[in-house]
């Protein structure tokens, strides 16, 4: 017997939500999907009214769904944003030239202006030429670094206040895993952040940070969105491939694994004093040192929480405890 939708309980379910495993009808799935992205945008205060927002548009599923949903939410909730599509043409024949045709079709369908910047015009080198020179092994490094800057330069031409990209929950969890496997702990929290701002670059954010890739594909499918699905011909990123397979295996057993990994990245903190990894704003070594340096080592090794220990150590010394130092200077 056909199941009914877990949300409206009346319509017939046509899908099972990958994130929760619940049966949903089409309309309730659209509503839940759109509402979750809206919540992410509002709770993280990603934009302010009047912002000019450049949507990094590659023609792939993520950025195509992002463009569609940014338009839907901007209209529905009156965000007051000026939206633009921004595409980087890396100069990869048989790949980017075809995907840019998809972006142009999306420009016409959504009525969002499109700006294309190319590696050839910005750097004097296309990726095809770079690969001819450096080979296929390290070409992704060139492409990644150049794309980051190209998006900034394109956003500057558009006078954009903000760039959004289609990075989804799976992409972010994969990056957290890769940084963990490489022992690159300083990057853990940064790669899991929803918004980033580097000096002199345009602020960026990822409205799909908590959106599952499988749900993006479902949304595109049921909305009949047009996207380009070929993988880059130059990107045999084997390491990410293993992280991806591992993540998919985890997801199959426990769908929440994707969110849990993102939360692990978010929860990682670097000590605000010495930069070493910490589970609090200040690491245990700094708390112990503070105790030693203040002549109260026992305060920092007791059973109290690290926050309370630090607060106690940072509190102005009581008159009784101040006596030895005061006595020393008086004598
Ligand atoms: N050539 C490009 N021009 C503009 N934005 C890009 C380009 N390539 C990537 N991006 C942005 O970076 C995001 C992540 O890129 P990635 O290469 O991981 O692609 P993806 O996961 O296949 O996403 P998509 O499905 O949108 O192509 C994209 O969703 C898009 O917002």
From TrEMBL:
Binding site for ATP: 56-58, 62, 88, 166, 171
Pfam families reported for this sequence: ATP_bind_3, zn-ribbon_14
EC numbers on record: 2.7.7.-
Sequence ranges assigned to domain Cytoplasmic tRNA 2-thiolation protein 1 C-terminal in this UniProt record: 270-299
BP GO terms, sorted: protein urmylation; tRNA wobble position uridine thiolation
Keywords carried by this UniProt record: ATP-binding, Cytoplasm, Nucleotide-binding, RNA-binding, Transferase, tRNA processing, tRNA-binding
Signal peptide: none
Compartment list: Cytoplasm
Superkingdom of source: Eukaryota
Molecular-function GO term, any one: tRNA binding
Class in the EC hierarchy, top level: transferase
Region (Disordered): 312-331
Any Gene Ontology CC annotation: mitochondrion
Associated pathway: tRNA modification; 5-methoxycarbonylmethyl-2-thiouridine-tRNA biosynthesis
Functional description taken from the UniProt entry: Plays a central role in 2-thiolation of mcm(5)S(2)U at tRNA wobble positions of tRNA(Lys), tRNA(Glu) and tRNA(Gln). Directly binds tRNAs and probably acts by catalyzing adenylation of tRNAs, an intermediate required for 2-thiolation. It is unclear whether it acts as a sulfurtransferase that transfers sulfur from thiocarboxylated URM1 onto the uridine of tRNAs at wobble position. Prior mcm(5) tRNA modification by the elongator complex is required for 2-thiolation. May also be involved in protein urmylation.
The name this protein goes by in its record: Cytoplasmic tRNA 2-thiolation protein 1
Source organism (scientific name): Caulochytrium protostelioides
Originating gene: NCS6
């Amino acid at each position: 017997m056909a199941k009914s939708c877990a949300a409206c309980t009346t319509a017939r379910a046509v899908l099972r939500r990958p994130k929760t495993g619940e049966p949903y009808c089409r309309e309730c799935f659209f509503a839940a999907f759109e509402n979750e992205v809206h919540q992410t945008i509002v709770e993280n205060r990603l934009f302010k009214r009047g912002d000019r927002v450049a949507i990094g548009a590659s023609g792939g599923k993520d950025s195509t769904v992002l463009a569609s949903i940014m338009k839907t939410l901007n209209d529905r909730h009156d965000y007051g944003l000026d939206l633009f599509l921004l595409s980087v043409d890396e100069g990869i024949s048989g790949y980017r030239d075809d995907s840019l045709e998809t972006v142009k079709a999306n420009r016409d369908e959504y009525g969002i202006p499109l700006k294309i910047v190319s590696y050839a015009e910005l750097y004097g080198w296309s990726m095809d030429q770079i690969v001819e020179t450096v080979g296929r092994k390290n070409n992704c490094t060139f492409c990644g670094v150049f794309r980051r800057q190209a998006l900034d330069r394109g956003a500057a031409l558009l006078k954009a206040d903000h760039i959004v990209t289609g990075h989804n929950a799976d992409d972010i969890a994969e990056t957290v895993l890769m940084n963990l496997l490489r022992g690159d702990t300083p990057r853990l929290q940064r790669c899991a952040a929803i918004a980033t701002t580097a000096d002199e670059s345009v602020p960026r954010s990822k409205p799909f940070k908590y959106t599952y890739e499988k749900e993006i594909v479902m949304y595109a499918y049921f909305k009949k969105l047009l996207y380009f699905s070929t993988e880059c011909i130059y990107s045999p990123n084997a390491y990410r491939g293993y992280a991806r397979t591992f993540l998919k295996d985890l997801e199959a057993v426990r769908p929440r694994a994707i969110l849990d990994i993102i939360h692990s990245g978010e929860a990682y903190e670097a000590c605000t004093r010495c930069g070493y990894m910490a589970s609090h704003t200040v690491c245990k070594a700094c708390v112990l040192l503070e105790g030693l340096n203040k002549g109260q080592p026992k305060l920092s090794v007791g059973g109290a929480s690290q926050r309370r220990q630090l607060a106690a150590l940072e509190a102005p010394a009581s008159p009784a405890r101040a006596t030895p130092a005061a006595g020393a200077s008086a004598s």
